[in-house]
TrEMBL record:
Record organism: Rhizobium leguminosarum
Site (Interaction with DNA substrate): H247
Site annotation Important for catalytic activity: residues: D217
PROSITE patterns: AP_NUCLEASE_F1_1, AP_NUCLEASE_F1_4
Keyword Manganese: yes
Pfam assignment, any one: Exo_endo_phos
Location of the active site: Y105, D146 (proton donor/acceptor), H247 (proton acceptor)
UniProt GO MF annotations: DNA binding; double-stranded DNA 3'-5' DNA exonuclease activity; endonuclease activity; metal ion binding
Protein name: Exodeoxyribonuclease III
Note describing how the cofactor binds: Probably binds two magnesium or manganese ions per subunit.
Cofactor(s) listed: Mg(2+); Mn(2+)
Residue(s) at site: Transition state stabilizer: N148
Family: Belongs to the DNA repair enzymes AP/ExoA family.
DNA sequence: ATGACACCTACGAGGTGA
């Protein structure tokens, strides 16, 4: 199963690019972030015409997350994280599609310090508590999306410039580390230790051409999912397309459980 | 310090987010 994540930065403004990438990459499951569209403006007809079923949680102007599945309807299990009922940001959606898939858009948190940064840390705490519950489940779980965190210095083109940015503040890196420490596997880093890998390049300062990027889109896998992991890659070329998002799509390949069992019994 | 892009409102261009 090929599972992808893509922060589209406006699903309607990006529709042409998204459809082109879907047609080329043919992922089985896709998590989208930053739809920037209200619930009724999600382009479900075009998504369905491309062969995907979808569930989504929209929001006017900002945020918004979706899960797409080729040839099937994702079975919705949750919208929003528990722990702060007054939080109305559309940042989490979860479904069962060959295991459990949680699609998240963690708050950016800038500027630091301030209420937005505090909200980011609160959101992280809620994710931490809920993620621990997910690990108790029998089935494989994948928590995927835009975490708005560079986990280590290797994940930033120039770490010293980012020390007081909400994406790289020590509190935020600690929160990510603590989350992973519950027993999750960071799929890209696991398969590519020591390698410079970016998933985001700013629109300005010619960042993409200079490869001045950040690794902020992550796949966290439960042990059951990590056992099936065979590949993890960034579709970097998509970032170079005209009218591209500032993120590139990222994807992993999970070996089919059935294939694995068949091999074992041989 | 600057910049790019997409969203909004509402018709022209400026504010916000990140």
């Amino acid at each position: 199963m090929k599972l992808a994540t893509y922060n589209v930065n406006g699903v309607n403004g990006r529709l042409e690019v998204l459809l082109r990438w879907l047609d080329q990459a043919k992922p089985d499951v896709v998590c989208l972030q930053e739809l920037k569209a209200p619930q009724e403006k999600f382009p479900i007809k075009a998504i369905e015409a491309a062969g995907y079923g979808a569930i989504w949680q929209g929001q006017k102007s900002w945020n918004g997350v979706a899960i797409l599945a080729m040839g099937q309807e994702p079975r919705l299990t949750r919208k929003g994280l528990p722990g702060e009922p007054e939080d109305e940001h559309s940042r989490y959606i979860e479904a069962i599609v060959d295991g459990m898939v949680g699609c998240l858009y963690l708050p950016n948190g800038n500027p630091y310090p301030g209420p937005k940064f505090d909200y980011k840390l609160r959101w992280f705490r809620r994710l931490h508590d809920y993620a621990a519950e997910l690990l108790e489940l029998e089935e494989p779980v994948v928590l995927v999306g835009d975490y708005n965190v560079m986990p280590t210095e290797l994940d930033v083109y120039k770490p010293e410039r980012w020390t007081n940015d909400a994406l790289f503040r020590v509190e935020v890196r600690e929160a990510y580390k603590k989350l992973v420490g519950q027993g999750w596997t960071d799929a890209l880093r696991h398969l590519h230790p020591g390698e410079r890998i970016y998933t985001f390049w700013d629109y300005f300062r010619n960042a993409f051409a200079r490869d001045a990027g950040l690794r902020i889109d992550h796949f966290l896998l439960s042990s059951g999912a990590a056992r099936r992991l065979t590949k993890a890659e960034v579709d970097k070329h998509v970032r170079g397309w005209d009218h591209s998002s500032d993120h590139a799509p990222v994807w992993i390949e999970l070996q089919d459980e059935l294939v694995k069992k068949t091999r074992k019994t041989k």
